[in-house]
Amino acid sequence: MKKTLRNALLGLGILTAIPSQAAWFEVTGQAIMLESKSSARTNAIEDAVYRAMHFAGADFSSFSSMKPYFQEDRKDYQFNGSEVRHVQISKSYTKDGNYYVTARVDIYPTAKSCHNVQYKKGMLISDFSIAVPQQAALGGIYQVGKDFTQLLKRQIGKQSQSFVITGTSAVPVQPENPSAMMMLAEDFDAQYILSGQITDLTSTLDQNRFSSDTINRQFSVELQVLDGKTGEMMLQRKYREVAEWPFSRISQVDTQSARFWVSTYGAALQRVSRNMMLDLESSLACRASLPEVINAHGNLVQMNVGRTHGVRQGDELKLWHTAGFIDQYGISRNRMVETEISLVVNRVYETSAELSVQQSELAASIQPGDLLTKQPPRRY
To answer: Which of 151, 141, 137 is nearest to 194 (CA)?
Structure first.
């Protein structure tokens, strides 16, 4: 049995030794050589650590705080206050235009991580737009915004620890109109709305006397996340990558094709997508998930999260009444009022669940739109 497990781990490129709680992983990360050897090394280390954390189920929310240290040219990186305690570089080399780093990563996972004690939060993604469509003329990649949206949707859907995609919308996000955004989020059962704009797709010609001319192309994108319950801006980030454009200057490139996504430029877009997901984990993972009451009848309540969000039979939740008001500046605000009402999950469906009210005498006060928060398991 042990031999079978070890062979399986070797097939993943990961070796692990597991003492009572901690584990170490030996992982090889890779990155494309383009701007400089040092930037490729940094990206390869990030890739190795990400692979180890993903395999171990470690909390992604600490990843962003570690990234600046990987820019330092060292063999050892030690961290406090993170599940990743030690990263040791054992080998690095270049091959076929890629930079490879083999690293030993010591991980101390904890059951108290936010993604272990919270339900996944629903997220609606709005299609990314292109700020200057003329910049997409090279290669005719006018659909790259929608295709990048789908890439990010798959990235979050498959690898995010804290979010689940509830839908994709072509409706432009309007931060200046919070009421409309709250209605849009409600239509998709989304706690957050994510949108963005591609701001730079320009290219430059790098003339090299030792080889043929190389086209390097920018990919700059702005990300914004709105709170679907209040319409407020929660997160804004800018990302920029430059990568070789390996296609002919006169060819039309299909941004849905494997040829595009395995290219150096496609790999840069995938790196941006992963960094976005990790920033979401770092910034929003520890915010409370807020399931909403969608139906109440007698002693039974139905909420709008279910199995895909991590709901389990027997979970205990606390109920909060919600009320809206207009502040002195004319801005619509929401207020949450804690109640004494507790509920227990009886039945779990794919995207909803049925709960029973523990204080039956208070059940009549529950209304659709009230919010719920998950309670930690009781210790006996």
So the answer is: 151
